[in-house]
Design goal:
Bile acid:Na+ symporter, BASS family, Bilac:Na_transpt, BilAc:Na_symport/Acr3, single chain, globular, mainly alpha, Na+/H+ antiporter like fold
Length: about 290
């Protein structure tokens, strides 16, 4: 059951989820980058550079090794999707910036994830590890399950906007169900080792979530001097695409242990993002 879910069910579900992401995008979301480049460049740099560097520091701080370290690092390579867009809306942030970051960075990461994940496996796995990431297979998989469905979703929105608008919230709920089913399946597959891995990876996953949210907010606050954009960057950096990370750790690398950090993180981020949204809604937007 676990293999069927990760090898067949997860890629198909992710294709549907990313099609939903495409339905939420318009060509204007890409052109907006050039109209207000400062916020976008800071957000993209935070996602593509700050997150992996922070993950390396957190891994060293908590002494994570082998699969647990690799899983946390791979998670840091997977930017948030529609979840960050939703929480940007709930937090009275700059939703346009959030959507632009989702659109553009989502087309960049299929090229960065395979290379950086392969480095992490070599560095944290050690010489004795049998783990290997097929870089070309990973790149093709990411293109098929993330980039192409987004383009299809955008085409569907352009051709049938009413259908796209109606389908978008349904797909968002479906993505949460898929993530929960994955986490349950991974937990069952790990058996007695589950709590031992959670005890090791849980504090590191929570630290990565909170520290990156804080860094993202402070960067936006002091470099952009705009509260709404600061909130957006906080959420874009602090909310990762756990489903995409689990596709790599379970579907390609077939490692339940490597999936612990992304699973724990995915559960915790909803709590931290909800608390941030509650605070943001009660705070004045300058």
């Amino acid at each position: 059951m676990f293999n069927s879910l990760t090898q067949i069910g997860l890629p198909l579900a992710l294709i549907l989820i990313m099609t939903g992401v495409g339905m939420s995008l318009r060509p204007a979301d890409f052109s907006r980058v050039f109209a207000a480049p400062k916020g976008f460049l800071l957000g993209a740099a935070a996602q593509l550079l700050l997150l992996p560097v922070t993950a390396i520091a957190v891994i060293a701080l908590f002494g994570l090794q082998a699969e647990l370290a690799i899983g946390l690092f791979i998670l840091a390579l997977c930017p948030g999707g529609t979840t960050s867009n939703l929480y940007s809306y709930l937090s009275k942030a700059d939703v346009g910036l959030s959507v632009s970051l989702t659109a553009v960075v989502g087309f960049i990461t299929p090229f960065t994830i395979p290379l950086l994940a392969a480095w992490a496996i070599g560095y944290y796995g050690g010489a004795e590890s049998n783990l290997q990431l097929p870089v070309m297979q990973t790149w093709l998989t990411l293109m098929i399950v993330s980039v192409l469905p987004v383009l299809v979703g955008m085409l569907l929105r352009a051709k049938w906007p009413v259908f796209a608008k109606a389908a978008e919230p349904v797909i968002s709920k479906f993505s949460i169900i898929v993530l929960l089913l994955l986490i349950i399946s991974i937990s069952v597959d790990l058996g007695d080792d589950l709590w031992r891995f959670i005890a090791k990876a849980g504090p590191a996953a929570l630290t990565l979530n909170l520290v990156t949210m804080l860094f993202g907010y402070l960067l936006g606050k002091y470099l952009l001097q705009q509260e709404r954009q600061a909130r957006t960057i906080c959420l874009e950096v602090g909310l990762q695409n756990g489903t995409l990370a689990l596709l790599i750790t379970t579907g390609i690398l077939q490692s339940s242990a490597m999936s612990i950090a992304p699973s724990v993180y995915s559960l915790l981020m909803f709590g931290s993002a909800s608390l941030f949204a509650l605070w943001a809604r009660r705070s004045r937007v300058s």
